[in-house]
Amino acid sequence: MTDSIEQRILRDFRSFHEEPELSYQEFHTTQKIKAELTDAGIKILPLKLETGCVAELGSGQRCVALRCDIDALPVEEDPAHACRSKIPGKMHACGHDFHTALILGSAMLLKQRESALKGRVRLIFQPAEEAPGGAAKVLESGALEGVEAIFGVHTIPLYAPGTLGIREGATHAAVDRFRIDFHGKGTHAAHPDLGVDTLQAAAAFATAVQSVVSRNSDPFATNLLSVTRLEAGNTWNVIPETAVIEGTIRTMSADNREMVKRRMTQMAEGIAASYGASAKVTWVFGLPAMNNDKRLSDFARDLAQKDGFKAERTPASLGGEDFALYEERLPGAFVQVGTGPSLPNHNPGFVADQRALCPAAKFMAHLGAAYLETSVLGGAA
Ligand code: NI
Description:
Shape: elongated
CATH class of the largest domain: Alpha Beta
Low-confidence stretches: none
Number of strands: 14
Structural class: alpha/beta
CATH topology of the largest domain: Aminopeptidase
Oligomer: single chain
Number of helices: 10
Mean pLDDT: 96
Strand content: 15-25%
Bound molecules: nickel (II) ion
Helix content: 25-40%
CATH superfamily of the largest domain: Zn peptidases
Largest sheet: 8 strands, mixed
Strand order of the largest sheet: 1-2-4-3-5-14-6-13
CATH architecture of the largest domain: 3-Layer(aba) Sandwich
Distance between the termini: 27 Å
């Protein structure tokens, strides 16, 4: 890597870090990305995206995508940080500044060997990962049309620079939210027999529902269910007519997601009915679980080792990641770049070690180019 590209990657990282923008507000960030791409002579695709952008290098039938996310979080950065956000209340606390500089760096490196590429590499600068769901906007724009495979990047403070975390299958959970409205009959606290106590029904449900995890789930599966809000009544001598429960479920496969939803609904309705009350269950479906393609994950891991990285099998997380939306459409793999040690992502004290940046940019460029030289998914190389 030439000094100038290396310096440029590090300068970009600092610049993105100092000027974070929240989901769907990444106008200035998008301008900066486009200016860097244009300056490097890289083609920007004319897609309808208000923020974020998509660029492409190379030519030919085959196409592989490299994706980063570009948005920041409403977090006030630790004032002790040497390089720190200049915008109060906003911070790149998940390392998306690092990801953006990384994929821009990969683009510049690929530009140097563009004529040798055995196909096209599409670079996705995705907005609003934290919203979440900027990936849906990117998909709607047609950015993934004609793409065979997609690789994503993310920082991981668990590992030091020099280590890449790659895991096949589910690395991030499906994130769903529920609300249950229990309805009964309000009455005087001294005359419970004249009413239907919804609070009792809701409390019974909140206790019993954990059996969906302990009794209905495969003991080797990872399903999580948290009741986080139970609200009923407003005074001491009235049995309330309604009670509300909210919470979240996290599952690692479509089958488990469906099973937990079905059993919870049955249980809410059944328990409510057994107390003479009713329950209305509302689901807010969030992101699906990630599902990293085994062939692509193995390919990325082998290449990481050949390139001198230590490759680890990343632990799974019950957090969500909207890269999962791409993987619903096409095979993908997720590369987590060791940038630690640090406080966790989304913490005001989160830092990504910049020593990990240039090697990772070089690796992702290599991964895109090497993918096009092989037939990992069984197609023509
Ligand atoms: Ni993130």
